[in-house]
Amino acid sequence: MVSEEELKNYLQAARIHTAAEEVALGVVKEGAGVLSAADAIEKEIVEAGGKTAFPVNISFDSEAAHNTPVANDQRVFAKEVVKVDIGVHVEGCIIDAGFTIDLSGENGKLVEATEQALKDALSVMRAGVKARDVGAVIEKTIRSKGFKPVENLTGHLLEPYNLHAGIEVPNVAKGGEHVFEEGEVFAVEPFASTGAGFVADGPAPAEIFSIIALKNVRMQRSREFLHEVFEERQLLPFAKRWFAGEKMIDFTLRDLARQGVLHDYPILIDESKGLVSQSESTVIIEKDSVKVLV
Ligand code: MN
Ligand code: MN
Questions:
Q1: Which ligand has the minimum distance to the alpha carbon of residue 158?
Q2: φ and ψ at residue 206, rounded to 5 degrees
């Protein structure tokens, strides 16, 4: 259940998210720098009074999620299917939402499929509805447009400072035993694919990490880094590029990962390299409908 104070924070985070999306629409353009786009979006979040709930994900073509620029990233946007996934929080109250921009000019139908699936999903969500029934709606809409829903990515419960709080909203009519209750906050995120409809970890080293749990760590720098990040972000994900100024950041991250303190998030890629689109909203479950925050 969302308290009055939390509702205020969610609404503020939603306003900030909308401002960050507007920035994204201006900077995700063919020929523009990917790193400068990410910087502009994340800067807007902070300047508007929020915090990043995770590094902005800017994922391309067959990538579904978890791509974020590296430090000194030189890439520019080309004619690609670009997913922009933005996370904002105010006092831990997280808005997780994103959309797809078709810079290819040839994949509008794919983008429409997830946009329509999201609309259809939100129109049936309310207290008492089973998560699987929402997955069924998403699957039906995406298949009716000639694409595959991505089966192994799901929407998820949001709790303060907890991005994936243990309950899933499937994108197909499988699993999803949870029955929604009034006051729960959920991210709903249909993905559509022209390929396999399953994603797997890509080969590149992860650029996004989160702390699994605070633990005793022997190396002094690793211990300091762990506590600095935890104090600032708790268990919310962070990007390696944010620490580009740190000497030995690679060493520190490897040291912490080896000790089971860090989770990493490799880029998720469609198994047959199909193109992928995503549309995501954050909502609060109400008695007869949902309150769409973003
Ligand atoms: Mn997201
Ligand atoms: Mn999400």
A1: 2
A2: -65, 150
Mean pLDDT of 57-81: 98
**Encoded tokens for 54:** 């995770």
Q: Which amino acid is at 17?
A: H
- Our count of domains for the chain comes to 2
Distance in Å, CA 273 to ligand 2 centroid:
21
Which ligand is nearest to the Cα of residue 164, counting in written order?
Answer: 2
**Exposed/middle/buried for residue 160 (C-beta within 10 Å: 0-12, 13-18, 19+):** middle
Query: What is the rounded average pLDDT of the residues 169-196?
Result: 98
Given a contact cutoff of 8 angstroms between Cβ atoms, the answer to whether 205 and 186 are in contact is no
- Pairing mode, if any, of strands 281-285 and 185-188? antiparallel
Looking at the fold, whether 233 and 137 belong to one and the same domain comes out as no
Residue 210 has pLDDT above 90, yes or no: yes
Q: What one-letter code names the amino acid at 196?
A: A
Same domain, 133 and 248: no
| Ramachandran category for residue 275: left, alpha or beta (phi over 0 → left; psi -120 to 50 → alpha) | beta
Do 136 and 280 fall within a single domain? Answer: yes
Strand segments (E) across 189-280: 191-193, 199-201, 208-211, 238-239, 262-265, 268-270, 276-278
Lowest mean pLDDT among 87-91, 215-219, 283-287: 215-219
| Domain with 276 in it | 4-202+268-292
Would you please indicate which residues are annotated as catalytic (active-site) residues? Answer: 85, 96, 156, 164, 189, 280
Q: What is the pLDDT of residue 274?
A: 98
